[in-house]
């Protein structure tokens, strides 16, 4: 199930990012400063092309927004369950290291469980990082066109072309307040990696500091009993 969510989200985001990248490459081929010259595009062609680029950019942003509305809840659950699964696996690795198996068969099973747990942790981390990189790449491509627009001397352009450039700039400023998020709870970008790491370390540190609390002691005892029963630890 996790792989299905990751694969579908990454496939859609990668394709959308590729379209933004193609649009940016096309803008680089346009006349410098959107000013016509001998043997190049006419001013009407430049204005019409600029309008089409702006509308296409807006359509792609709308597709990203619709994807966020439709898939944002799924990604919210995905990131949440991945965090709790990662926390549970870390908690398991901390507790399982306290036990020594009495038999070679149990020792082999315990080692295999540890290896599989670490592998699942790495898989979840790789999936999450890939999704965050894909979203950050899209955000970068969306804003990248600003550098192209800033090189344009708007005061020297005809009225129609100047209007398209100003509309494009306003369109980009609106996007800055409407970034891709997990159903509105948090923005999905590379900063989320640091947030997850801080939250994970804080939770583990708090559990260590509260190890003498009655509820924590009871939970640890129950969990240790479960490990002994499930994995035949002694």
TrEMBL record:
Transmembrane segments: 63-84, 114-135, 179-201
Entry keywords, A to Z: Cell membrane, Membrane, Transmembrane, Transmembrane helix
Signal peptide interval: none
Protein's organism: Macrosiphum euphorbiae
Main location: membrane
Subcellular location per the Swiss-Prot or TrEMBL entry: Cell membrane
BP terms from Gene Ontology: sensory perception of taste
Record's bilayer topology term: Multi-pass membrane protein
Protein name: Gustatory receptor
GO CC annotation: plasma membrane
